[in-house]
Amino acid sequence: MNNLETDIEQLQMKVAFQEDTIESLNQALIEQQKQMDDLQFQLKQMSSKLSAIEPSNMASEKEEMPPPHY
Fold first, then answer.
1. What does the alpha-carbon distance between residue 22 and residue 10 come to, in Å, rounded to a whole number?
2. How far is CA 9 from CA 1, 17, 21, 23, in A?
């Protein structure tokens, strides 16, 4: 009977450890999702800013004159 009690105690400890591990992983996942959401927001903001920038006064490659040695 003592062996059965020991086995039950070990199983209870394993379950408790697994519950703690699952909770830790869940918290890490929540934090990673928050970071991804923040990064996606920043990416959208940067994309909007870049698309709002007026084209520069520099000529395109097709409009560029070739160097004098050509």
1. 18
2. 13, 12, 18, 21
Tell me how far apart the alpha carbons of residues 8 and 1 are, in angstroms, rounded to a whole number.
11
As a whole number of Å, the CA-based R_g of the chain is 30
Taking the model in full, what pTM does it have?
0.61
Given CA atoms 39, 41, 42, 43 in this order, what sign does their dihedral have? Answer: positive
Token pair, residue 30, equals 């929540």
Q: Is the pLDDT of residue 57 over 70?
A: no
Rounded CA separation 44/29 (Å): 22
Pull the structure tokens for residue 57: 């006064």
